[in-house]
């Protein structure tokens, strides 16, 4: 799964492929993003406020599908976005 997200902000789109996630996100992004080619891949030196497409966990994708893009997420050492708390034990 892939997500288009703003570093330090919301998730704008989810998809099974990078292209699908970008197409989904275009509805929510401002006029700076006219097409999928305007959304860059995640890169390690990305700064707060930038919008990128990145691989994400199924848990993050499921949360966004159910509740919208206002998700608490982070990026792990292997450059995959994940939902905060998804690895915690649920009692």
Question: Can you walk me through this structure?
Answer:
Helices cover 20% and strands 23% of the residues. It is an alpha+beta fold and 91 residues long. The protein has one domain. A three-stranded antiparallel sheet has the order 2-1-3. The chain has a two-stranded antiparallel ribbon with strand order 4-5. It is globular and about 35 Å long. It starts with a strand and ends in an 8-residue tail after the last strand. The mean pLDDT is 91.
- Give the H and E element order: EEHEHEE
Low-confidence stretches: none
| Count, helices | 2
Structural class: alpha+beta
Task: Count all strands and give the number.
Answer: 5
Query: Measured on Cα atoms, how large is the radius of gyration?
Result: 12 Å
Report the biggest beta sheet as strand number plus sense, adding barrel if it closes: 3 strands, antiparallel
Q: Which overall shape is indicated by the principal axes computed on the Cα atoms?
A: globular
Number of domains: 1
Average pLDDT works out at 91
Strand order of the largest sheet: 2-1-3
What share of residues are in beta strands? 15-25%
Q: For the terminal residues, how far apart are their CA atoms?
A: 27 Å
Bin the helical content: 10-25%
